[in-house]
Protein: Pro-cathepsin H
Amino acid sequence: MMNTNLLLFALLSAASAFHLPSEGDEFHFKSWMAQHNRVYSMKEYYERLQIFTENKKRIDKHNEGNHTFTMGLNQFSDMTFSEFRKSFLWSEPQNCSATKGNYFSSNGPHPDSIDWRKKGNYVTDVKNQGSCGSCWTFSTTGCLESVTAISTGKLVPLSEQQLVDCAQDFNNHGCNGGLPSQAFEYIMYNKGLMTEENYPYTAFEATCAYKPELAAAFVKEVMNITAYDEMGMVDAVATRNPVSLAFEVTSDFMLYSQGVYTSTECHKTTDKVNHAVLAVGYGQDSGTPYWIVKNSWGSGWGIGGYFLIERGKNMCGLAACSSFPVV
Ligand SMILES: *[C@@H]1O[C@H](CO)[C@@H](O)[C@H](O)[C@H]1NC(C)=O
Ligand SMILES: *[C@@H]1O[C@H](CO)[C@@H](O)[C@H](O)[C@H]1NC(C)=O
Ligand SMILES: *[C@@H]1O[C@H](CO)[C@@H](O)[C@H](O)[C@H]1NC(C)=O
Structure:
């Protein structure tokens, strides 16, 4: 004979294991869908509602705790981290190991804070890589745009698509990953990079359509900062220009909203880094030093498209693989 209490218990625990979405969850989900222009088939609606509800629970739980950063809903809130990783991060480790870099830092003294966005017209608007693992091209253009603007006084958005389509000979792999240092090498040997306007971004890999007569930015030398020399990065950002870096994105970062990001989920080694971005400055917030970093997930993500990440601890391997060009 079946014990009804036991049956009830089994049903309830099954429900809680699957976190059956409530009316409130559906309400949140529908307003999120409207905000992000999402339309689903009936079947997909329930799958996405489930994932969204899990993500929202994680956000609420995190935000109740004592952390230096908050999580929030964003355009990725209906995705699992493994789906997210497939669309936006490198699928395999890149050759990112400047065991001995060629950048020698001056050892300071350095200012307590610096923000290249405020020093002049040196940083272009936040861009959006779409569903293509091309972060490395945005880190590259972002850095070269700034270095060129600091040198010439003219800030011009440059072409990611040229790097996606044309930089394969330097161990870059279009939508499947690449490295800013290798992209700078490509630009140096190719003798130029076109503008965003003349070679616009599509988020798909296509045949190289580079036109040398339209080259708009150039690289004379590639500076690699020795792996794990985070002081070298501080020196470069303080005394020269924004710096391209790579780090490991884990599931907690997908839901970042604001504040100084720190993680115990990520690693610190070159073989784990899976996303390239651009450090445009640094500072500190009630004793916690941080980097100011430009991302390429649109201006709706994070703090207007930027994030802060703890500085001085090689957080998530951010000092493993940094570089910048000399123009
Ligand atoms: C929150 O964390 C900070 C930094 O770790 C600590 O100084 C503070 O005491 C914590 N506050 C609470 C309420 O736990
Ligand atoms: C790493 O470098 C080796 C040797 O140059 C190359 O064969 C390999 O494809 C590179 N790996 C990646 C992910 O670019
Ligand atoms: C900098 O890094 C790139 C790519 O990782 C490499 O090809 C290049 O040789 C390095 N440059 C120096 C001067 O070590």
About this structure: Confidence is low (pLDDT under 50) at residues 6-17. The first strand starts at residue 69 and ends at 71. The radius of gyration is 22 Å.
